[in-house]
């Protein structure tokens, strides 16, 4: 379907959240990760909007959703922002798709508002503290923060990007870049929190929330891909290896979609079978 969304703003907790939506049917809410902007989901929204109402947004302090004074990241506040967008659209619940740290915020949303989750799909949420080598990854994150503080954004971003496997594979289109100020907000206010934050996955399991996790094949053994294995162990949930890299849903959308539908079908069958 042609991409021609309706754009709107909802005010929540001192932030004008810019969101856009398209389609008819059950709601799918797409949550951006550390790059902060919703444009990365435009291709998959266009592809799905013949069957679903699709919505995404720029997260607070990112792209169009600015505030007067930036603050440290609060995953619970991010979850409340998602709730505000779902509510203003007139829905009581939604399918949730979160990628990268957006997957962490998706888990947080399910923790805080379980009654509003239809199904949840987390795509490579970087819950590094669950990994066997969590100590090493944590120390690497502290090193990157020191590089940012002493050598600046460009150097820190270059070192961080060495872990983003698959983006330079031959023939793979480039992703849409974030707004120019998004990386600085990420390094100033988000990565210090995300480095050690994991929502209570055991509570999600206890609540019997319908959850599936995905890891991207082009990411190989990147820490954020392997984190999905640990999540699946805790949640006892379905997991899929899907096409693409960390943003494969954006640049290999056609290849990604059958796996998206497969996961939704698996989750629906699991729920109806008890």
Give a written overview of the molecule.
This is AB hydrolase-1 domain-containing protein. Keywords: Hydrolase. InterPro entries: AB_hydrolase_1, AB_hydrolase_fold, AB_hydrolase_sf. By secondary structure, the chain is α/β, with parallel strands linked by helices. It has a single domain, classed as Alpha/Beta hydrolase fold, catalytic domain (Rossmann fold, 3-Layer(aba) Sandwich). The chain is 42% helix and 18% strand. The chain contains ten helices and eight strands. Strands 1-2-4-3-5-6-7-8 form an eight-stranded mixed beta sheet, with helices on both faces. α3 (101-112) links the parallel β5 and β6. α2 (75-88) crosses α3 (101-112). The longest helix is centred in the C-terminal third of the chain and has 20 residues, at 253-272. The two termini are 35 Å apart. The model has no long low-confidence stretch (mean pLDDT 97).
SSE diagram, text form:
Elements (H helix, E strand, L loop, with lengths): L5 E7 L2 E8 L4 E5 L10 H7 L4 E5 L17 H14 L5 E6 L1 H12 L4 E7 L10 H18 L1 H9 L20 H13 L6 H6 L4 E6 L6 H13 L3 E4 L5 H4 L1 H20 L2
Parallel strand pairs: 3-4, 3-5, 5-6, 6-7, 7-8
Antiparallel strand pairs: 1-2, 2-4
Keywords:
eight-stranded mixed β-sheet; alpha/beta; Rossmann fold; 274 residues; globular
Can you describe this structure in just a few lines?
This protein has 274 residues and is of the alpha/beta class. It is 42% helix and 18% strand.
Q: Rough shape?
A: globular
**Sheet with the most strands, sense and barrel status:** 8 strands, mixed
Number of separate domains? 1
Class from helix and strand fractions: alpha/beta
Order of helix and strand elements from N to C terminus: EEEHEHEHEHHHHEHEHH
Query: How many β strands by DSSP?
Result: 8
User: Based on the structure given, which CATH architecture is correct?
Assistant: 3-Layer(aba) Sandwich
The name CATH uses for the topology is Rossmann fold
Q: Could you tell me the mean pLDDT?
A: 97
Q: Which CATH first-tier class would you pick?
A: Alpha Beta
Can you tell me the CATH superfamily?
Alpha/Beta hydrolase fold, catalytic domain
Helical stretch tally: 10
């Amino acid at each position: 379907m042609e991409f021609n969304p309706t754009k709107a703003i909802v005010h929540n907790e001192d932030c004008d959240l810019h969101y856009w939506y398209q389609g008819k049917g059950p709601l799918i809410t797409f949550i951006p990760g550390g790059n902060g902007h919703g444009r990365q989901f435009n291709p998959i929204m266009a592809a799905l909007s013949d069957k679903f109402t699709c919505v995404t947004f720029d997260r607070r302090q990112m792209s169009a959703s600015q505030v007067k004074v930036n603050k440290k990241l609060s995953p619970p506040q991010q979850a409340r922002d998602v709730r505000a967008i779902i509510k203003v659209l007139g829905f009581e619940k939604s399918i949730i798709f979160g990628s990268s740290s957006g997957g962490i915020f998706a888990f947080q949303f399910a923790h805080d508002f379980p009654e509003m989750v239809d199904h949840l799909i987390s795509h490579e949420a970087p819950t590094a503290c669950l990994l066997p080598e969590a100590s090493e990854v944590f120390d690497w994150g502290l090193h990157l923060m020191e590089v940012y503080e002493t050598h600046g954004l460009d150097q820190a971003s270059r070192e961080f990007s060495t872990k983003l496997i698959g983006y330079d594979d031959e023939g793979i289109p480039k992703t849409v870049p974030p707004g120019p100020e998004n990386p600085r907000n990420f390094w100033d206010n988000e990565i210090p929190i995300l480095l050690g934050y994991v929502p209570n996955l055991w509570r999600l399991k206890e609540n019997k929330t319908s959850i599936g996790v995905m890891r991207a094949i082009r990411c190989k053994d990147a820490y954020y891909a392997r984190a999905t294995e640990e999540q699946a162990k805790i949640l006892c949930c379905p997991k899929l290896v899907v096409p693409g890299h960390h943003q494969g849903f954006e640049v290999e959308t056609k290849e990604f979609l059958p796996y998206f539908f497969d996961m939704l079908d698996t989750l629906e069958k699991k729920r109806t079978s008890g």
